[in-house]
What does this fold into?
Amino acid sequence: MSRTRVALNLDLDEGKQFHLGEVKVLGMDATLAGRLLRQHHLQPGAVFDDRNVKEFARDWNLTPEDDIERRIDERSGTVALLIDVRACR
It folds into this structure.
């Protein structure tokens, strides 16, 4: 059996990196919200990663599309989040 080697070079452009701007949680004590946002890497200034938003939503039985509003500011490179957990009560 003969073996063939292939060299592959990929140039990836992931686009602009966004950071979290303002993050508000409706229906939760501010201290608890702050702790949970830190645990999920959703505090202002953090690099935005939608996987963290989805994990937070899963942990709180939220629907990301309905319960979490995202406001993207292309110019400043930020994403603001408005998370509504009032329906979880």
About this structure: The mean pLDDT is 91. Strands lie at 19-26, 68-73, 78-84. The chain has one domain: 19-88.
